Amino acid sequence: MDHFPKILDHKDFRLRPLEEGDLPEITRQLGDCRIAPWLAAAAQPFGRAEAEALLAHSRHPGEHLRVMVREGSLAGCLCLGAALWYWLEPSYWGRGLMHRALKTTITARFSGPAPPLVATCHVDNTTSRALLARLGFAPSPTPRRMFFQSSQRAEPCQDYLMAPEQWHLLHPPRIVLGRSTLRPAVQRDAATLARMLPCAETGPWPGAEALPAFIENHRFRGQARGLFVLEDSNRRSIGMALLLRNGPVLRFLSEEDDTRHRGSVETALARGLFPAVQSQT
Fold it and tell me: pTM here?
């Protein structure tokens, strides 16, 4: 079953599937000379037939095409499928909207099993290349050529790659659980987490010497599993949560932290972490 949500809401916009009523505005935008030259598949002139073909494409399984709606207007479009591609209506340029939209959708895509993403940019599209670099995409060392419908010739391009584990490493979620916050554990947490371990290897917990390997083996990989650090409102590490298939196991730095936070953390985790992971975008 496809885990990608039909609608994604952000405080600045809504991302939803393409609809029949969007086609006139899609036709106008993809006929704009400021947009079309950067999209390899945008034939020129771009008319109703081409817009209907895009609508049909958006309904293919695995092609997660979403339009961005802001204040009632269609501000752009993106698609995470066999390839990643997107555009933004020029009046919305320079506001960081596409950065936020891509961060939202890529987080949703990698919240479950999914292959790496590949985006291909024209070498002269400096804005898009900078956007992908900012998100952490790795450029291919070798440029290539791609055929562009608008120019009817092969143009110089560069591929950019994002693997799921790289995304989770670069964009870890922070999840509010009552009076504390949950974030994925990383190796620099080892010294602090060692102070929370039982005196001897007990249950799921390792001995202190095995903690670095334990952190790596239980690294967050997109689903609601792994080793997390609990922080208080001052971002002080107060505990850790090992989220397993059969439920969470908690350890705290002190009895006081345990008394103050365990109840609210257990209650919040009982509601399910997966929706919370998706919301931290």
Answer: 0.82
Q: Per residue in 91-120, is it b (16+ CB within 10 Å) or e — as a string?
A: ebeeeebbebbbbbbbbbbbbeebeebebb
Strands of 226-231's sheet, edge to edge?
175-177, 180-184, 226-231, 237-244, 247-252
List the chain pLDDT tens, one digit each, 281 residues.
478 999 999 999 999 999 999 999 999 999 999 999 999 999 999 999 999 999 999 999 989 999 999 999 999 999 999 899 999 999 999 999 999 999 999 999 998 888 999 999 999 999 999 999 999 999 999 999 999 999 999 999 999 999 998 999 899 888 888 788 999 999 999 999 999 999 878 889 999 999 999 999 999 887 778 999 999 999 999 999 999 988 899 999 999 999 999 998 998 888 876 444 444 44
